[in-house]
Amino acid sequence: MNDATDSSTVPAPQGACRNCGTPLLGEHCYACGQPVKGLMRPLGNLFGDILDSVFDLDLRVFRTIGPLFAKPGFLSREYFAGRQIRYVTPFRLFFLLAVVTFFVAQLTTDGPNFNIGGEADGIAAATTVSEVEKRRDAALAQLAEGKQKMIGTPAATGIIGMEVGEQAVREEADRRIKQLQGAQAKGEPPPAPDKDGNHGLNFKVNGKPWNAETNPLDTWLPAFGDRWFNKQLERSNENIQRLQNDKSAFKDAVLSAVPSTLFVLVPIFALMLKLAYLFKRRLYMEHLVIALHSHAFLCLDLLLLLLVLALQSAVAPEAGVLHGLLGLIEKALLVWMPVYLLLMQKRVYGQGWPMTLLKYFVLGTCYTVLLSFAIVASMAIGLVAM
């Protein structure tokens, strides 16, 4: 009787494995591991399997996104409790949201507007000192307006670049004023714009302007290292001048580099959590799960913020109620970021509020400094790669 009952619970074989001939009891052969489904099937089914393998796109996405946004620490605690299969895995969740967020950022944000000199209306073409000052002030105002629009969006990674652009504007204006004053002192007409002038990188090596050929950067590195650095500087110099005609190239290159930068920062942030909660005796992998979930939330919040900003720009200011409502949602999404991370840290680690607040501010300060260096690195990579 028991044998009959036991045999009835065993699934009936579904044929034999085409690789080793073992009777099949599921979607994979338990002897050799070969899947029942091969590549010889409709393209639509194959495409669905690829999406599932790479992004884990199934019903778990809908069970994961809501708690990720609205329940700080919930997914991490569920993961530690062993309830894992019902949600998208932390790495896939972060990977998917990072790729989607910064792809949308490239589509919805504008690049900085660089207009330093060399164009018909640029500073280098001005013929009087007052005209130089007028064009300089206009360029600085334009850059300041661009910086203001970047605040609170992923394009904020380019603010440092805008400040570099402001310094370049001032240097170009000073250079042109000296040219005009020198010509006036000699009784000569205003000099023509310097077509061969360096409107890109302006720094000196051994007291002379840097030049990849005549005055290259010479460091403690071997000769091939110096050649590589000078090559990157030369390429960056060419790209800075190219920004005057293609203002979105730098923005696209930086935003393309940001996801890779975040992938490097996540394990570093997990190590910072490990050190901050050393006496909690948690494994490093637990802190890594928390880091992945927190960064996935930041990407999701940024994605929603981008969509709200795009919708707000499409709605005329005259539509007062809707425009104002979108503005409130934008502010709420910005405020929710630090509040969420604080609540997540409190709920996951379970310490009292004084220690949680102390560690939150210490971790936040250290990570902000680290993120600043990462942003500069992303800008440097973007400037070379654009």
UniProtKB/TrEMBL annotation:
<feature type="transmembrane region" description="Helical">
    <location>
        <begin position="364"/>
        <end position="385"/>
    </location>
</feature>
<feature type="transmembrane region" description="Helical">
    <location>
        <begin position="87"/>
        <end position="105"/>
    </location>
</feature>
<feature type="region of interest" description="Disordered">
    <location>
        <begin position="171"/>
        <end position="199"/>
    </location>
</feature>
<feature type="transmembrane region" description="Helical">
    <location>
        <begin position="321"/>
        <end position="343"/>
    </location>
</feature>
<feature type="transmembrane region" description="Helical">
    <location>
        <begin position="288"/>
        <end position="315"/>
    </location>
</feature>
<keyword id="KW-0812">Transmembrane</keyword>
<protein>
    <submittedName>
        <fullName>DUF3667 domain-containing protein</fullName>
    </submittedName>
</protein>
<dbReference type="InterPro" id="IPR022134">
    <property type="entry name" value="DUF3667"/>
</dbReference>
<keyword id="KW-1133">Transmembrane helix</keyword>
<feature type="transmembrane region" description="Helical">
    <location>
        <begin position="253"/>
        <end position="276"/>
    </location>
</feature>
<dbReference type="Pfam" id="PF12412">
    <property type="entry name" value="DUF3667"/>
</dbReference>
<keyword id="KW-0472">Membrane</keyword>
